[in-house]
Design a protein that fits this description.
It is a single chain. The protein is α+β, with helices and mostly antiparallel strands and about 180 residues long. About 25% of the residues lie in helices and about 35% in strands. The protein contains 4 helices and 8 strands. An 8-stranded mixed sheet has the order 1-2-3-4-5-6-8-7. Strand 1 and strand 2 (about 20) form a beta hairpin. The longest helix is centred in the middle third of the chain and has 15 residues, at about 110-125. The two termini are about 25 Å apart.
Length: about 180
């Protein structure tokens, strides 16, 4: 993967006219707007508003934070980012992730292409397990993850109250085929 510096949106093509590149500070407004749009659906996460950019970046691993950007204009179309699940060294290869697609770009394959590229980057970084928590009602999110080898490992029932309702989440994980090699 080509690193994204301060200049043109260097990256790896993942779909016609779409590049995957590292997330950078200049993406803040677009990334948070996409996050906000996802949160406003009520089906993306327990949060109801996105954090500050500083809070967003502090909670995620910079080396595993990417955007899908329009190859022509550089607009951010989607993002995927990982967070550690534990500070214990033995869990360094296990991350939780989120993937969000701009509402105008959904159902175009951009999310799938970005998540596939993200998975490749996690494996290159030595990650052996990628986890996701998805609301059962988020059928598109579940289908996306399952199409890329994620499997359901459990349901956390009534894990939190969201908009006044107790919500379940489905725990999905993808184990790298590189584990044990």
């Amino acid at each position: 993967m080509t690193g994204g510096g301060a200049g043109a949106p260097a990256g790896t093509p993942i779909a016609p006219g779409v590049l995957m590149r590292p997330m950078r500070d200049g993406d803040a407004d677009q990334v948070l707007a996409i996050y906000r749009a996802g949160l406003e659906t009520g089906q993306a996460a327990f949060e109801t508003v996105p954090p500050s950019w500083e809070g967003f970046r502090a909670a995620r691993l910079p080396r595993l934070s990417f955007v899908a950007a329009d190859a022509g204009g550089g607009e951010v179309l989607a993002w995927a980012a990982a967070a550690p699940v534990s500070s214990r060294p033995v869990c360094a290869g296990v991350v939780e992730h989120g993937v969000y697609v701009h509402p105008g770009c959904q159902a175009l394959g951009i999310g799938r292409a970005l998540l596939a590229g993200f998975i490749a980057e996690t494996e290159a970084a030595g990650v052996w397990t990628v986890q996701a928590y998805v609301f059962p009602e988020n059928t598109a999110g579940l289908a996306l993850h399952r199409s890329l080898g994620f499997r359901q490992v459990g349901v956390r029932e009534r894990i939190g109250r969201h908009h006044g309702l107790w919500r379940d989440v489905i725990l999905l994980e993808r184990r790298s085929p590189l584990v044990g090699r």
